[in-house]
Design brief:
Elements (H helix, E strand, L loop, with lengths): L1 H7 L7 H9 L2 H25 L7 H27 L8 H4 L11 H12 L3 H9 L4 H29 L5 H40 L3 H24 L4 H22 L3 H7 L3 H17 L6 H26 L24 H9 L6 H7 L12 H25 L3 H8 L2 H4 L3 H9 L10 H10 L12 H12 L9 H36 L11 H24 L9 H25 L7 H23 L7 H13 L8 H42 L24 H11 L13
Keywords: Cell membrane, Membrane, Transmembrane, Transmembrane helix, Transport
Protein name: Carbon starvation protein A
Family: Belongs to the peptide transporter carbon starvation (CstA) (TC 2.A.114) family.
Length: 743
């Protein structure tokens, strides 16, 4: 009887011939279109890197970036799909054969793209490029675009695909399966510890953005009940109506944003939604726990999908404003700080610290945790991993590119006044002017009136030493959008809108990160207590979630209660730790490709692994061994320790100096731990590759094949053949459909 039901179902996948037919439609028109895109991209790159001239228009960033992304997605990602991934949509994904209605839930590809993009796009693509602008616009632009195409998107796609083939296992558990006990244990420890620090730092950025902001607290808070409604609507009220709920969700989100501005202007709104940092930290920790244990379809997926509307919408709006307003780039192509080590914004040489600073905008190890965490447990069909993994990372890179544009189109005097430390500027307008003018910047003439006027235009008392990147991005975004909507009078609105946008942008990485951390801990515990690997075991879910939330929540509370901002001292670790995670992920992927005996195309993974390993290990060694206090953790540690011992308080108050001594020691020890673990994983991966080559036969660690009984299109827009097959599935009686096909 079961066999008869299977025979009655429409196809679960397109045949190779059908895929080729869809791909070959309108061939002549497509060839002409891709030639046009290629020429437009070449023009953009030529104007940025070759011609330049006295002024550079920001429009060329959009042309160069978008054309490069489109070409990479169409050609390079398909090449990887064909030569390495080789997906089979007749094969069920974990979301189908492990479906439990909580973590394993087959999700519509566009909703899942929204969840995945919202989860991976945190502080990195917003803040990193802004800080990297100190080296000029060209180095950052090249790495953001080239790095994502040949490293970041490759990692995200292949980690997601290989995790999907292995039941949604975490990158740490895949490392243990592929590299053995030593390499796997090192990878599990590294991913767990780094994940705790990353989620804590992301949470701190959200707290700082929302503290004392009733508008932001109300609007961001309203996304939770809206997401719950969307989840219930899509699950029970109108199953499968993606377009319908998308429109409803977007309207409700816009209403929440507009209402937030009004609520923030009322006395009762200020009293109710003005929260201090400690209260916000507790709320975020509680939210992280709840979001990690609730069924993924109820809160996490719809909230992330909802957030993606705003994330992508604002970035597309910024890109459109650049095309219309045509702002002029104020930063040089390569600045004078490219050849110095002690710099006003980010200390260290351009190599390796440009790559470490930009981080998530081009390559992010955090993404590997998401791509082997929530997302592979929700993928409908294997072919969708290219759209979600590779495409999602390209979109994040575009976010980073637009953040860079916002920074480099700002007046350079304002940029360096905002991003130089209070120790350098004294925290005063005149001190900032003296500091910036003393940097010897070509063509920069900043005055006290300029800085005061800039602060007043966005409704702030001061913009001096507003470090961290987020305020600079808000200023740059407001500077461009006000020329499109409202003029100077709207600067304040756009500035505070951007601050709220950044908080919403980052919070989605916190809730997804907590859920992924829970998966990772369950996998780790499962090596000793197998029942923990059962994601349906509620007690195990609660215990694992509580441990991870307690870990990052404790660090978060330490940061918000320390008057020196204790966790802020860990932020420099974020970039290096994140890139070391990427090296670990690429090493695991390389070992998997080698185990499949696919040595001909191993370079696709080995090349970015070699580059990121050199970059991050070099960066780690600088941070550990550099004798320059501004660069080396231990050099700074000994400088302040010796000053305290000698009774020299010229470097600051004794309490502050003691905190620096303590924090730099923690930074240095963690740096040693992270780089050691990463080196162990990389070495064991190389050994595994050599072993696979000598063995000469495929070693398979994938889950057994289960035939699929659901259907889903591969890309954002279904092809004609996919629409035809989907119509056949939609015409089936409800009793014959798999429950997974409804979500």
């Amino acid at each position: 009887m079961a066999q008869e039901i299977v025979q009655e179902l429409p196809p679960a996948a397109l045949t190779e011939a059908q895929i080729a037919t869809d791909s070959g439609r309108n061939r002549g028109l497509k060839i002409a279109m891709w030639i046009g895109i290629g020429l437009l991209g070449a023009l953009g790159w030529t104007m940025l890197a070759v011609v330049r001239g006295e002024t550079v228009n920001a429009i060329w960033f959009v042309f160069a970036g978008v054309a490069s992304y489109l070409i990479a997605y169409r050609f390079y990602s398909r090449f990887i799909e064909k030569r390495i991934a080789k997906p089979d949509d007749n094969r069920a994904t974990p979301a189908e054969y492990k479906a439990n209605g909580k973590d394993y839930v087959a999700t519509h590809r566009n909703v899942l793209f929204g969840h995945h993009f919202a989860a991976i796009a945190g502080a990195g693509p917003l803040v990193g490029p802004v800080l990297a602008a100190q080296w000029g616009f060209l180095p950052g632009t090249i790495w953001i675009i080239a790095g994502v195409i040949f490293a970041g998107a490759v990692q995200d796609y292949l980690v997601m695909f290989f995790s999907t083939r292995r039941g949604g296992r975490s990158i740490g558990q895949m490392a243990r399966d592929q590299l053995g006990r030593i390499g796997g244990t090192a990878a599990i420890i590294a991913t767990l510890v780094i994940m705790v620090i990353i989620v804590a730092i992301l949470s701190l950025v959200v707290v700082n953005a929302l503290a004392e902001s009733p508008w932001g607290v109300f609007s961001v808070g309203m996304t939770i009940p809206i997401a719950l409604f969307m989840g219930v609507y899509l699950r029970w009220i109108r199953p499968g109506r993606i377009t319908e709920i998308s429109i409803i969700g977007f309207v409700l989100l816009m209403a929440a944003i507009i209402a937030g501005g009004w609520v923030g202007g009322t006395d009762w709104g200020v009293a109710l939604f003005t929260l201090d940092k400690v209260a916000l930290a507790w709320f975020i920790a509680i939210y992280g726990f709840v979001a990690a244990v609730l069924p993924v379809w109820l809160l996490l997926a719809p909230r992330d999908y909802l957030s993606t509307f705003m994330k992508i919408g604002v970035i597309v709006l910024l890109a459109a404003a650049v095309l219309i307003v045509n702002p002029i780039v104020q930063a040089p192509a390569v600045s004078q700080f490219a050849s110095t080590e002690v710099n006003p914004v980010v200390a260290g040489n351009i190599f390796p610290f440009l790559f470490v600073t930009i981080a998530c905008g081009a390559l992010s190890g955090f993404h590997a945790l998401i791509a082997s965490g929530t997302t592979p447990k929700m993928v409908q069909k294997e072919r969708q991993t290219r759209f979600i993994g590779f495409g999602g990372m390209l979109m994040e890179s575009f976010v980073a590119l637009m953040a860079l544009v916002a920074a480099v189109t700002l007046d350079q005097g304002i940029y360096f006044a905002m991003n130089s430390s209070a120790a350098a500027t004294g925290g005063t307008v005149q001190g900032a002017v003296d500091w910036v003018m003393g940097l010897g910047l070509t063509g920069v003439d900043v005055t006290p009136e300029m800085l005061t006027s800039a602060a007043q235009s966005v409704g702030e008392e001061s913009i001096v030493s507003r470090t961290g990147g987020a305020p600079t991005l808000a200023m740059g975004l407001a500077n461009i959008l006000k020329d499109l909507f409202g003029g100077t009078a709207m600067m304040g609105f756009w500035y505070h809108f951007a601050i709220m946008f950044e908080a919403l942008f980052i919070l989605t990485a916190v809730d997804a990160g907590t859920r992924v951390a829970r998966f990772m801990l369950q996998d780790a515990f499962g090596n000793f207590i197998p029942k923990f690997r059962d994601n349906s075991w509620r007690l195990g879910v609660w215990i694992s979630t509580a441990i991870m939330v307690a870990a990052w929540g404790a660090i978060l509370l330490m940061g918000v209660t320390d008057p020196l901002g204790g966790i802020n001292t860990l932020f420099p670790l974020f970039g290096i730790a994140n890139q070391l995670l990427a090296a670990i992920a690429l090493a695991v992927v390389m070992a998997i490709v080698a185990a499949k005996q696919n040595f001909k195309y191993l370079w696709i993974v080995a090349a970015p692994l070699a580059f990121v390993a050199v970059v991050t290990i070099t960066g780690s060694f600088y941070k550990i061994f550099s004798p320059v206090p501004q660069v080396g953790y231990f050099a700074n540690h000994f400088k302040y320790r010796d000053a305290l011992a000698a009774g020299d308080t010229s470097l600051g108050e004794p309490a502050a100096m003691e905190a620096i001594v303590r924090n730099t020691l923690v930074q240095g020890v963690l740096s040693i731990l992270f780089v050691t673990l990463a080196i162990i994983v990389i070495i064991t991966a190389v050994v595994a590759v050599i072993r696979s080559y000598r063995l000469g036969k495929v070693v398979d660690t994938e889950d057994p094949v289960v035939p699929s009984r659901i259907f889903g299109a591969a890309g954002f827009i279904a092809t004609p053949t996919e629409r035809k097959i989907q119509a056949e599935w939609d015409a089936l009686p409800e009793s014959l459909r798999s429950d997974a096909a409804r979500h």
